[in-house]
Amino acid sequence: MKAVVQRVKRTTLDVDGQRISEIPFGLTVFLGIKCEDTKAQAEYLARKIANLRIFEDENGKMNLSVKDVQGEVLMVSQFTLYGDASHGNRPSFTLAQRPEKAEPLYEYAVEQLSSYGIPVKKGVFGADMQISQHNDGPVTILLET
């Protein structure tokens, strides 16, 4: 499982011209699920994301988590994180989990992150999503199990 975690001032997510999700500030998380992933990886990433200290404290040090600053998370499923373009120019997605198995793990990861008391908004699994975000910093962290 792979997560791209970005600290944001604001993120919106639309599908077919309709606003689906929006967070005022916090983290946008793009989550990729590969073939061998299990609930254990989802639990690990949820714990890491909930406790990741990438927000500044009163001294300007990155010492606070999204929980500490009472931020929100927008979690977006993104199978393209497992795109392999090492052979040619067209990526292969053979490492990405099939949708019928990936979607329940995505939902489980959202549930696990929510269990830390963090408001978690979602994208629409498998949809063509239009995401607009105002990155903060920018701060981008790659987590992988």
Describe, in plain words, how this protein is organized in 3D:
By secondary structure, this protein is α/β, with parallel strands linked by helices. The chain has a single domain (2-144), classed as 3-Layer(bba) Sandwich (D-tyrosyl-trna(Tyr) Deacylase, Chain: A), CATH 3.50.80.10. Helices cover 20% and strands 39% of the residues. The chain contains two helices and eight strands, in the order βββαβββαββ. Strands 1, 2, 3, 6, 7 and 8 form a six-stranded mixed beta sheet that branches. A hairpin with a 2-residue loop joins strand 1 and strand 2. The chain starts with a strand and ends with a strand.
Protein topology:
Elements: E1 2-15, E2 18-23, E3 26-32, H1 39-51, E4 55-56, E5 62-64, E6 72-77, H2 99-114, E7 120-122, E8 129-144
Parallel strand pairs: 3-6, 6-7
Antiparallel strand pairs: 1-2, 1-3, 1-8, 4-5
Query: Uncertain spans, ≥5 residues at pLDDT below 50?
Result: none
- What is the helix tally? 2
- Specify Rg, calculated over alpha carbons: 15 Å
CATH architecture: 3-Layer(bba) Sandwich
From the helix content, strand content and strand pairing, which structural class follows?
alpha/beta
Spell the H/E element sequence.
Answer: EEEHEEEHEE
CATH class: Alpha Beta
Assign the CATH topology: D-tyrosyl-trna(Tyr) Deacylase, Chain: A
Strand content: 35-45%
**Mean pLDDT reading:** 97
Helix content: 10-25%
User: Biggest sheet: strands, sense, closure?
Assistant: 6 strands, mixed
Q: Estimate nothing, just give the exact number of structural domains.
A: 1
Q: Give the distance, in angstroms, between the N- and C-terminal Cα atoms.
A: 5 Å
**What's the CATH superfamily, by name?**
D-tyrosyl-tRNA(Tyr) deacylase
Beta strand count = 8
Shape: globular
